[in-house]
């Protein structure tokens, strides 16, 4: 029998379903438009339409153990999270769901994942949770959408005493994640690029640290 405390409570969030796929795709595409990683991975040509096709393939190829959630049925922000060991995009599924259209981008995507995976393995164990994506549409940024998405996950991780890891590529995002309790553990540059990689890790908060 499963202990209810060992299961994340995401009842306040909206899970990805077939009928909401387009809303999730549009949110991710809009949220990542102009983002350094998007521009680099798309070869400097990351239009919103191109990002829609890309995120459609990504969402359809996430592992079944990933939690793909929105803040509300309106889908103003999305979160993709799972245990590190269960995370990621299945390459064959990505290609079959439209990823072949990004054939010229695949070497960059593979190079990035090779680099990021090595950094991730240094700081995140198999039971560490990994935030694969946190995206908020531009019109809803600064309106606590990210907090709505993060709070249920972080509360669960505090309860079970689990670490959480994420990556960002925009320096201005670092203090935002620090607000959620993450600490910068490593900064580097993705090989053959000018893309900065910020690795961040959050240790679970105990009752003692919460009251400080």
Give a short overview:
This protein has 212 residues and is α+β, with helices and mostly antiparallel strands. It is built from 8 helices and 7 strands. It has helices at 21-32, 36-41, 48-60, 91-96, 106-123, 145-160, 174-179, 207-210; strands at residues 14-15, 67-70, 77-83, 129-136, 164-168, 182-189, 196-202.
Report on the structure:
This protein has 212 residues and is an alpha+beta fold. A seven-stranded mixed beta sheet has the order 1-2-3-4-5-7-6, sandwiched between helices. It has eight helices and seven strands; from the N terminus they run βαααββααβαβαββα. 31% of the residues are buried.
How do the strands and helices of this protein lay out in sequence?
Blueprint: E1 14-15, H1 21-32, H2 36-41, H3 48-60, E2 67-70, E3 77-83, H4 91-96, H5 106-123, E4 129-136, H6 145-160, E5 164-168, H7 174-179, E6 182-189, E7 196-202, H8 207-210
Helix pairs in contact: 1-3
List keywords for this structure.
212 residues; alpha+beta; 7-stranded mixed β-sheet; 38% helix; globular
